[in-house]
Amino acid sequence: MMLLVQVVLLLLALPSHGQVVTTEKPEFMIPVPKGACAGWMAGVPGHPGHNGTPGRDGRDGIPGEKGEKGDAGLVGPKGDTGDSGVTGAEGPRGFPGSPGRKGEPGEGAYLYRSAFSVGLEGRVTIPNVPIRFTKIFYNQQNHYDSTTGKFRCNIPGMYYFSYHITVYLKDVKVSLFKKDKAMLFTYDQYQDKNVDQASGSVLLHLEVDDQVWLQVYGDGDHNGLYADNVNDSTFTGFLLYHDIE
To answer: What is the structure's pLDDT at 153?
Structure first.
């Protein structure tokens, strides 16, 4: 059978009758296997060979177009606090702000008050005893006692005392006492048929319960203190400032 196939193939290869045989060389020639004889015939195709080894990677392609923005990722953990930066330069001064609201009324400071002003209502005839000034001009704190003629200290501090006396009919000798001690003396000689004036003033520091008063000293010939509806003899005192503990 094989021999018959070979013969058929050979006949097909020969030129047919009447064909012009040219001397030109064919464009290509089927190579004759080495060692084959002149009347060879092709064999049956063999099985496909095994895949060759992979070739080398090709060159990088051209970058593609930018893709769409992806979704935001999850928030990461808080990082450590960084170092403080350098203090910047002082900025320009701002404009004044609007006035604030009015505050609530505060508690007022306590005011220490002690004062009196009194006058005579007639002549004084008894010497060496406190003169009772019973005509009250001011005695709101009641620190002056008109029944005894004495001022009693209720607030320790510095006080001012003064007296103005109308002198008539006799000479006047008066003294201002503090705690049974004469602190100030005033003498005025009466001028016949004339009304005269005598006065005195002093600053005294008093403690609580200290007493101050006026009295005539000497005998009865020096008690010319006088007062009527047009002439006054007055005694005044008040606290200048209290002691600070």
So the answer is: 97
Q: What is the pTM of this model?
A: 0.56
Q: Write the DSSP assignment of the chain as a string of letters.
A: -HHHHHHHHHHHHSPPTTPPPP-PPPS--PPPPTT--TT-------PPPPPPPP----------PPPPPPPP-PPPPPPPPPPPPPPPPPPPPPPPPPPPPPPPPPPPPPPP--EEEEE-SS-----SSB----EEEE-TT--EETTTTEEE-SS-EEEEEEEEEEEEEEEEEEEEEETTEEEEEEEEPPPTT--EEEEEEEEEEE-TT-EEEEEE-SSGGGEEEE--SS---EEEEEEEEEPP-
pLDDT of residue 138: 97
